[in-house]
User: What shape does this take?
Amino acid sequence: MSDRLVFGVFPLGIAGGPDGLAVGPPDDFEAIGRALAELQGDGAPLLPRMYVVWTGPESTELVSGQVAQLAAIGVPLDLALCYRDPSGDVAAWASFVAQVVARHGRQFAALQVTGEPNLTWAGAAADGAFPRATDALVQGVLAGAAAKRDATVAIGFAVVPDIDPAASGFWDEVRRSGGAAFAAAVDYAGIDIYPDVFGPRVGLDDLPATVERLLRDFRERDLATAGIPASVPIRICENGWPTGPGRPEEQQAAVLETIIRTVDGLREELNVTHWELFTLRDADSSKDDLFHQFGVLRDDYSPKPAFHTLRRLISELTRSR
Assistant: This one.
């Protein structure tokens, strides 16, 4: 495994919630470039993270074009392929994933197959609300792996923490559907964690234990149930903490530092390789809704305290050890 965490970031001013997209002022790509360069500082290169949304066979041509545009940027991205097909056409989805890997498997750093397929209550904001999402995860990963050949891209997935696996049955279904072939095809297992955001509030002193429990449950219970071995690395594909009423900007900095240091402390034992920020910039800093204020920058690209904290941590924790 790597001797240091890899840091990534979603750089755009948009967030998805159960009531639809949180948006605001348009993205300023020059400002994004400057902010990413400053955030990286003298640390290791940041991994930019992006998303595309496949909504069924009729969207394949459009989304394939979006993927090609992202591949042409020239910077290896972590790209999430989201499955949002109301018709549940898993065969067409698997074909799309295989096509992306065959065409661009040497241009992307990672391809995430499905976005939160075990999250069923968030409406169009997560893949779990769509028919056959678990099949889309399994068949998409298998199709991507089969198309890899000489491709270097890492193929994986990302879920949300499973609070009650016995009730959800998600991991048992993954094991039954995918078996050993799925476990062997996965290059990484991702998890999106938002402690003290969704669910009960968590005090700063209790945050390290909460993060450790989330990661241990994922590694030792969920992935083990699916037959995915400890040799498969964990990536934290999304983590963030919004500001706004009752959520001071200074606390955002403290929360993110606490989480990152906890993750770094568990890195070797639990084989955690990546931590990725959601998100660089607020969607709209004038709106109190938490989905509009996830950024470590405000929507005018001015920094919150967490931006400087994150820059310091990236410099400190990505130096070779």
The chain has one domain: 6-317. The CA atoms of residues 83 and 176 lie 21 Å apart.
